[in-house]
CdaR family transcriptional regulator
Amino acid sequence: MSLTIADVLALPGLASMRLRAAEAGLDNVVRWPYVAENSGIAEWVLGGELVFVTGINHPRDEANLLQLLDEACQRQVAGLVILTGPAYIQAIPQRLLDAAEAAGMPLIEQPYSLKMVLVTQAIGSALIQSEQLGRSRHDVLERLLTGDYQSLDLLLHRAVQLGMSLAGHWQVAQLQLEGSELLFAQDDAAQVEAQLARQHDAISRRLRQLSPVLPVLGRAGQWTLLLPAADAVAALANRQQLVNWLNPLNLRLAPLKVFIGLSAAAHPPARLAQAHDEARQALTAARRFSERAGLCVYDELGVLKLLSGVRDRALLDQFLNERLGPLLRHDLHHGPSLMPTLEAWFHENGNLVAAAQRLAVHRNTLTHRVQRIEALCGLTLENAYDRLDIGIALMIWRLSA
């Protein structure tokens, strides 16, 4: 569970603090309070802090306050608190309020008469309680999703005590952020780490909006959340909502990319472990099959359901080697040509012209490669049963890529 700006303003004893700008940022998560003592804060914050500006140790004119706001936005702090009173900062400049509103940075006014020690103690205690409650909630959800419990009734009773109602039917979503290795190859490691942290926070915030009732489980670029889905109509709405968010998100993140796998709908708490496994299988397909456009639902897997259900990986490897082993060994020694050709041929449903265009090769080159494929594998692409075997083998190959 996270402590937000709205939660801070609702803490006992802090009623005299009031929001002056950017109500839209009330859901910003507060990591810790930080009292700004220098002229700037960029060097001293990591993101997510609630920054208190007193004016005691450094003069705070309008220009400096605007500078602090700019640095707060750059470092993605949770919000700014300006202490006002007769001694230091008499009033918050209107330009600062307007700029904070435009930037979406919550700006809170705190009377200087409210002692900082009381404020920081209240926030610190709330953060500790929030962290403890969050851990307990995460533990309950993780046990449900993994099936690691002896009594479902006792676990659900514990969930109710922790303020989580799991009654109803659910759909599990799994997300994964990939491509960070490309960033590390292009930029300084420290800058990349900071960038990844910001991206993780932004994604986590959006997921908490999608799942406001239950916590989002997440670590190291992977997230799991439960979405209400009593029937196929609700599941379709969930899918569309995620697609509408995912497509522009991946355009902004490039070269990073988020992939999403969704379980089927209407899973009661007793079947959440099954739903979790379905979402995992769908996520694998979303990652391995580019035509899925980054998102896949378990109900859309088709024959991949059967392949994912084979627990003995050696059987799948044996089938792949029997059907396409000669092509794999050819491409290993001579560079990838035959396997991409076969994949393009299948993707274009046997249309040689379209497959040649997809590969950017001459049609005669493609024809020669197809003949080579048939000779090496002892299969005929025009034979329906051979095509079925090859299609399944291609799926296994892509799942294991």
